[in-house]
Amino acid sequence: MKNTSIFDKNLNPVLEVADKDDLEPLVDYVKDKISENLTSSDAYKMRYPDHTQYADLIAREIRDMGGNSFVNVLRGEGPAYHEIVCDVAKKLEAPFNENRSIDEIEDAILETILKKALDHMSDGEKRELLKEMGSKGGLDSGGISTAAFIAIFRAGGFYSYQLTLIIANQIARMILGHGLRIGANAAIARWASVLTGPIGWAISGIWTAIDLAGPAFKVTIPCVIHVAMLRKKLNALSCKECGAILPDTTVKFCPECGNKMST
To answer: Ubiquinol-cytochrome c chaperone domain: from which residue to which, for each copy (predicted)?
Structure first.
């Protein structure tokens, strides 16, 4: 359903195919800001809590939060989402090129957070992280360096999504007081719960050390991280029948619905 003609090629397509549970954290992040307009919209009042019915308004709200209110009024909308992601990258001191694609800039942000978190983890915690991820890619106890995990992340696919979800889940715990609603996939729910300790505490330390001088960053930083996770989810392996995220390419049957995977 379209509630506004305002559209961003790097944001709307991701939100408009997400389910209501995936959109809920974005709604909660936005609602935390006094100047938000989402909850006063007719679509929200009539269709809450089915966030899929006003995904375009959520996208518009995120963009509005990333811009100056006066400038937003003059141009009729908030800044492009690409610009917002660049602002977040600068705030988190992530090395990036603003001329690169949105995916690459999001990855630069996630890598910066991941590197700092991994640097705070012991070798034992890294081994546990690798174990819970499935010890794939030929990595063993000797492949627990930060560089090894970054290589897994850069490879893309399910494991990149795994690491991104861990970060997004911990950000939600810190800001919203609870993790993401990931119970639909039993495997993901299991390892995300296990990993909250080692990598969670590291991310918490990073977050509290960030100087959020501008109140808008309290919304845009978690939103950008969550949208990056949703984009990773779209690119990860999934069951065409039920949509469940699959652990790897060796799975012959979906662990959720039993559908046979194509070979």
So the answer is: 52-222
